Amino acid sequence: MPTMMTGSEPQYREHLDKISSIIDKYDNTHSIIVTGDLNGSLIATRNNNHDKLLKEFCRKHHLNHTFENTRDSTFYHHNGKSCSQIDYILEKKDTDLLRSTIIEDQYHSNGSAHVPIRAKTNISIASDKIKGKKSKSQNQKPYSNGKKPI
């Protein structure tokens, strides 16, 4: 996603439109999870152009996050003077795929300006082989909600 450089709004909107096209194409057949550095914040008090576009994108597609630590930052600027929450793992509100999403602490060994985000899911993927043996349950749904995750 484009950064907050001057004049980046059209590029940011274009990226969201591309993601929207993918969601629209697969929404009826797959469970949707959107993840990554979105360079916009969903925090209510933030309202720059990217934030507004991201919030509208999430409203349009009924996306939300399940952060347990909702105020923690995910990005720390290299100058040490600013930080923000711009990295997300989002799901459709009615899917219940994510049990929880946790923003990890900033570790000295992490060379990135972004901290890891960890999600626990309710997704179960059936396997016809378990340690080289055939599974006893042949009638298992391949995914917990019947849709394939993308």
From TrEMBL:
<dbReference type="GO" id="GO:0003824">
    <property type="term" value="F:catalytic activity"/>
</dbReference>
<feature type="region of interest" description="Disordered">
    <location>
        <begin position="126"/>
        <end position="150"/>
    </location>
</feature>
<dbReference type="Pfam" id="PF14529">
    <property type="entry name" value="Exo_endo_phos_2"/>
</dbReference>
<dbReference type="InterPro" id="IPR036691">
    <property type="entry name" value="Endo/exonu/phosph_ase_sf"/>
</dbReference>
<dbReference type="InterPro" id="IPR005135">
    <property type="entry name" value="Endo/exonuclease/phosphatase"/>
</dbReference>
<feature type="domain" description="Endonuclease/exonuclease/phosphatase">
    <location>
        <begin position="11"/>
        <end position="117"/>
    </location>
</feature>
<protein>
    <recommendedName>
        <fullName>Endonuclease/exonuclease/phosphatase domain-containing protein</fullName>
    </recommendedName>
</protein>
